[in-house]
Structures are given as structure tokens and as C-alpha cells.
Amino acid sequence: MHRNMPPLNAIRAFEAVARHEHLGRAADELNVTHSAVSQQLKHLEEWFEQELFSRVKGRLYLNSAGQELLSGYTQALDLMQDTTELLLRRGPGDHLTLHSDPAFFSKVLMPLGDVARSADSGVTLDVKTATISGSAFPETADIVITHSKHDNWRNVHREHLLDVHGFPACAPSLLERYDRPNRPLDLRRLPLLHGADRDSWNSWLVEYAGSTSAGCANTYYDDFSMTINAAVRGRGAILADPVLCEYELETGQLVPLFNNTILEVSYYAFCTNLKYSTRAVRRAFDNIVKMLRTHDATIRAKEQNREPAHRPWDTASTAPRLD
User: Fold this and answer.
1) 319 has a pLDDT exceeding 50
2) What band does 56 get if pLDDT is binned at 50, 70 and 90?
3) 10 Å Cβ neighbour count for 10?
4) pLDDT over 80 (residue 312)
5) Cβ distance 241 to 181 under 8 Å?
6) 237 SS3 class
7) Residue 48: its pLDDT value, please?
8) 190/68 same-domain check
9) What is the average pLDDT value for the chain, to the nearest integer?
10) Cβ proximity of 141 and 271 under 8 Å
11) What are the residue boundaries of the HTH lysR-type domain, all occurrences included (predicted)?
12) Does residue 194 share a domain with residue 62?
């Protein structure tokens, strides 16, 4: 297909001059002479048959036509640069970088054991665990898994993975030191352990106890796996869930206090649209999404078929209802 466009060198010279508003600095960036840049601008204006700059006291300023042209050309050049860098990074034996919430990786992805096999043969998966924040998709990541929707991230492919619903739980050892809670409001007497979202306990108490977590013995952790470890050691009560706390609940290291649940967080997988267009990243991304959705469906099926959890001190006659 024939593209009716001016020469690429003229476009690059125009964008550089418009950005710097200076011929000399644009020439330095492009590693060409001052006269070469000036000549490219002349060619471009002749191609469009109109001026693109206003010349005032030796300086160049975009006119309305130039401003309109700059917007589209800047996006096009940025896309060309991103695509070039992406291709340079991709090659036989190259690697993909997965950024994941630390707790989600250690408590969910790692036990599944299928993460490494999600990538193509010959591609190494490099996993980095860190709390994901910021206004843009991390430059060093190919795929990101986190518990924030990141509506401010632009040009990304996003897939919802699963929801986490929490209920009060604690280690049996905690109940050796504190009175057993018989109603939701009694939980305010226990030390409360929080994850990074920081508001789940307050929301649960508002919903089911008509109170808040203000004034309680609150401890906050920025990594939910630390919250789980603290709860198992009897440091306080936690809002546990069958996704992140599956092992601790199944082995009795954590026991439910009440069955009432609240939505704590939702997990999402992200990838830039540009990276998702490459076969290696798309295959790994889609496989991870499929794997986690299958795992979530398995957990939800088990929860639906499970009898309501009983507290250790409940007898057969008192156990039917915990909420």
C-alpha cells in the first residue's frame, strides 16, 4: 500500500525542533548539522505547501497548523520507539518479567506451580514481587498482577482474575489469651491485623457490628503474607479468605470466628497493548489468566459445598449459626 506521507527524516526534524523550539538543540539531538535540520523543515513546509512555524527574533514557534501536526507525529514516533525497543528486547532465549503483589505470588501463584510453564519454551520468566503503585504501567514489567484496578493506566490490556472475600479468623492460641467472641462487636476486644488495603476491618465492623475499628489495637502490614504469618502466631485476628489463606484454614492454623464475609480486594492482570501484541507475552498472559480463573472456580466450588465453619468452642447444639 502506498502511503502519502512526507519523508521520515523531515518528520523527525520537525518533531525535534517543535519540542526544543530551537534549531541548534534539535540538530544536536539528531546528530546532524544546523543547516541539515533547517533544510528538512523547508522540505516539510514545501510538502504541505504551508508554513508550520512562526519565526520571531530568530526563534521558531509552532503555528496552528504545526501544533495540529505535532500531536499526531509525536504519538506516531513514540509508538515507533516503543516498538523498536520491544523488538530489541525480544529474541531467542529472552525473558518475560512478571511483577506481582508479594502475598499473591507467595500464597497463590507459587503453590500452583504452573507459572513458569505459562511462557513459551526457551523464554525465562523473571518474577519480581513488590507493591505496585504509580500513575503508569511499570516500564520494567511485561505482565503485572495486583489488587488495584489502576483506571489511570493508559493503553493497557486488563483482565479481572478473582475477588477476595474475607471473614474474621484467628489462631487457636489467641483464644487462650482473650475471651471468646460471641457476637461481632466482641471482636473489638481482640488485636486486629490489617493488610495493605487498611480499611477492610473497619468495613466489616461497620457492616456486621455497627461499629468501627477506631480505638482497637490495630497493626498494619504492607504485605498481606506478613499479616497471615502474624495471625498464625497468635498476634491478632485477621480477615482471612479461602484464596490467600487456603493452606492456613485447611490445616487449622487459622479458625473462623464468624462466617460473615466482605469483599476485600479484587485482583487483576495487566499488560500494555503493545506488549500484548507480541506472541510470547500474549501467550504467557493468557495462560496465567486461564490458570488463575480455573483456580478461583475450584475454590468457589469447594466453598459452596462446604458446611458452615464451626468455632473450636462450639458444641453440636450451639454450632449451627455463627453470625
Assistant:
1) no
2) confident
3) 20
4) no
5) no
6) strand
7) 87
8) no
9) 84
10) no
11) 6-63
12) no
Helix (H) or strand (E) holding 255: strand 255-256
Residue with cell 472456580: 297
- Kindly state the DSSP code that residue 22 receives in the 8-state scheme: -
Radius of gyration of the chain (CA): 28
* Whole-structure pTM value: 0.67
Indicate the angle between helix axes 8-20 and 64-89, nearest 10 degrees. Answer: 110
Torsion of CA 221, 174, 256, 248, to 10 degrees: 60
DSSP 84-111: HHHHHH--TT-EEEEEE-HHHIIIIIHH
Indicate whether 53 and 106 sit together in one domain.
no
Q: Which helix (H) or strand (E) holds 274?
A: helix 273-276
Q: Chain centroid to CA 136: how far?
A: 10
For residue 141, the enclosing domain spans 93-311
Average pLDDT over residues 25-51: 88
Given a cut of 50, whether residue 271 has pLDDT beyond it is yes
How do 95-100 and 143-146 pair as beta strands? parallel
φ, ψ of residue 143 to 5 degrees: the values are -135, 140
CA distances to 165, 168, 228, 262 from 186, in Å: 21, 11, 21, 18
Report residue 63 CA to chain centroid gap: 41
Query: Over 60: is that where the pLDDT of 88 sits?
Result: no
Boundary (domain end) residue, out of 69, 89, 109: 89
Confidence (pLDDT) at 10: 86
The cell numbers describing 71, all together, are: 500531536
pLDDT at 93 over 50: no
**Mean pLDDT of all residues in 260-281:** 90
pLDDT, residue 316, reads: 42
Counting the structural domains of the chain, the total is 2
Residue 167: count other Cβ atoms within 10 Å of its Cβ.
Answer: 24
- Torsion over CA: 288, 250, 306, 265 (sign): negative
Q: What's the CA gap between 73 and 227, in Å, rounded? A: 49
> How many helices (H) and strands (E) are present in the chain, helices listed first?
11, 11
In a domain, residue 3? The reply is no
